[in-house]
Amino acid sequence: MARKFAALGARTVLGDLDADAVRAVAGEVGGIAVPGDAASEQGVAELVDAAMGEHGRIDVFCANAGIGRNGGPEADEEAWAASWEVNVMSHVRAARAVLPHWLERGEGHFLGTASAAGLLTMLGSAPYSVTKHAAVAFAEYLNITYADKGVTAQALCPQGVRTQLLEATGETGRILMGATAIEATDVAEMVAEKLGGEEFLILPHPEVADYYALRAGQPERWQAGMRKLQRKVE
Predict the structure, then answer these.
(1) Domains defined along the chain, listed by start
(2) What's the predicted TM-score (pTM) here?
């Protein structure tokens, strides 16, 4: 997304735990690198301060950090806490930091990277599924609450994308998403096309809309299909 936005003329400020990687990409796109933990209040503050100090304003905040931890109720406290901090609270803290600026200006846009799991579920990972549902809910809350004040939000909900996060899902991810996984550049192209538009959900895999409708309208049928996939995974 940073590469795509830069190609369209955007000035970028990038944050990541991987200091070498974020500096490399920032150098490539002419942006500012802010190594650190985007899930923490300090990390968010450093990102916002860097953007405001350099550019005087923030037009779009992309809450893109995410982690996937496996397991269900038996997953340990650390797995649940880390998932909540990165997949949900990073979004909350980002919104808290930029909202005063946006409301004063009367404009601003929040893009929350969730997942198709935030609309459906992810087999084998309750922490991921639950927190991605929360990320979608938070973006929805922002859009409902502030859109009439000029501050809008969208939720980005892809299925499999060929990144390290997908690789970490192992055999389960390969079975569920390997055949339909797309490149990160494909996601970036769609984000650039849909960003700031009327569609709340950005769905790089359009079939997710059909799954989401089936889940809402016929939950028993949807769950029966997912149980069948669960048996296949097991």
Answers:
(1) 61-231 (3.40.50.720)
(2) 0.91
